[in-house]
Amino acid sequence: MKRKKWILMLTLCTSLVLGTVVTSVAATGPAPAQPMAQECGNCGQMRLLNQYQYGQWVYMGTTICEKRPGRLDEEYKRPVFVSVKCGNCGFTADLTTIWEKKVVCNH
């Protein structure tokens, strides 16, 4: 049930954002092309790209199965460390850590 609500909220938020973007682009005309990489603060080159490092899945407990309410599923989460690295000088910087969640249905 929580997953269905989460998916519904994600869908609503996405449609709201896309509607706003489409409306603003239609009103102002096409935006200038954006670079594929960011500028490195160390060397000034446009070679700063995102990197993702995935941690180990950690068991968090059980939850009621959505398919079979009388059974339990296992919940896991893992950290995803987001950083940037310059392809020119090798400069790196940590940006944030996000958490991925998965539910394993064993029946």
List the helices and strands and how they pair.
Elements: H1 2-28, E1 48-54, E2 58-64, E3 72-86, E4 92-104
Antiparallel strand pairs: 1-3, 2-3, 3-4
Could you walk me through the main structural features you see in this protein, from its secondary elements to its overall organization?
With 107 residues, the chain is an alpha+beta fold. It folds into 2 domains: 1-34; 35-107, no CATH class. The protein has one helix at 2-28, and strands at residues 48-54, 58-64, 72-86, 92-104. β2 (58-64) and β3 form a beta hairpin. The longest helix has 27 residues, at 2-28. The chain starts with a helix and ends with a strand. 3% of the residues are buried.
Q: Gist?
A:
The chain is α+β, with helices and mostly antiparallel strands and 107 residues long. The chain has one helix at 2-28; strands at 48-54, 58-64, 72-86, 92-104.
- Listing every helix as H and every strand as E from the N terminus to the C terminus, the arrangement reads HEEEE
How many extended strands? 4
- Write down the overall mean pLDDT: 79
Structural class assignment: alpha+beta
| CA-CA gap between termini | 18 Å
Q: In DSSP terms, counting alpha (H) and pi (I) runs of 4 or more, how many helices?
A: 1
Oligomeric state of the chains present here: single chain
In total, the number of domains comes to: 2
Over the alpha carbons, how many angstroms does the gyration radius reach?
20 Å
Portion of residues in helices?
Answer: 25-40%
Low-confidence stretches: 21-25
The major pleated sheet works out as: 4 strands, antiparallel
Percentage of β-strand residues: 35-45%
General form: elongated
